[in-house]
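Our working data are protein records whose layout never changes between entries. The record below serves as our worked example for the rest of this section:
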Amino acid sequence: MIQWRSAVVVATRSSWAGAREYAAQLASGETVRALGYLDVVGELAPGTRVLLNTTALERGLGTGGLAIIVAAPDDLPEPVPDVRSVPGHLVKARYTPSQTMVLGVDEQDSEHHGVLEDADDLAALPVVVAALHSALPALIAGIRETDPSLRVAYVMTDGGALPIDFSRTVAALRKAGWLAASITVGQAHGGDLEAVNVHTGLLAARHVVAADLVVVAQGPGNLGTGTRWGFSGTSAGEAVNAAGVLRGRPVCALRVSQADPRERHRGLSHHSSTAYGRIALVQADVPVPLLPGPVGDRVREQAHALCAGSDGRLTPHEVGCDGLGEALRGTPVRLSTMGRGYDDDRASFLASAVAGRFAARLLHSDLGR
């Protein structure tokens, strides 16, 4: 179902990259937060009438929990005179009312098609895979603490938000120069480059972006049902497989928490043990954070048990956290995972930073290429 509402834009609350958050007044007089994408509805002035999708907002959901501006019926963007002349024919969010057409980095109209047509090898490129979008800045902080000159590409899968413009994190990391490029794959769209799937996204990171390291994670808005298999982070295991098949070097960033109220996510999250222990089927490295205190003991025990039960596929590497706290406090974005900041759940961010540190060190040691 979709809950439709008509509203009027009152003011712009905030803006970043290709998105704007507005205050919009419903017919009832209630004012709600409404998200508009520039490439969909353009820039909207106060007084503009808009059509909203308020389904997730009215249900009180975290995933999708905003009013989304579908259109400004009285102020539509100018149509393209001849849409057939626009390069690119990849349709994303396919067969939905908001489907969009983009130029794929690997399609025939792309200048990079020749490079990617027969590309089949990542040449041991380190590919760090994470379950949550919130791990991205912490991962890159760990990479940069080791070597700030490394070119990092982000491959965003479609398990969470589909438009990358929803992510304030990516916008801030690009602005700060922490990301060389973003690549949206599957149904996700809006990256610096668009690709059909994780495989072509990884190959583009290697052969087009010339990245030294790649981070793969879903967009904002992790989905979970509290069941063993019902969560969008299963895509992490699939990304590990893609990196391995293409002869990259998969690195599994562990989802860890010392503060999550749900027991299944305390210490090592069952999302990591399922994605890496059951779904990933190739050789991969597992950086194990040397966290202090009981939580550190618990995570080390769980991580080693995960690797021991993998029939030799997963190799644990204990990595110290010294110096990473300062690196995390220096990120250009506010660290937040499930509503918790760095001081609320240090283990979560340190585990991600450790994975970044390990991956960067691969390029500076005999463990790497």
Notes: The mean pLDDT is 93. The first strand starts at residue 4 and ends at 16. The chain is about 30% helix and 25% strand.
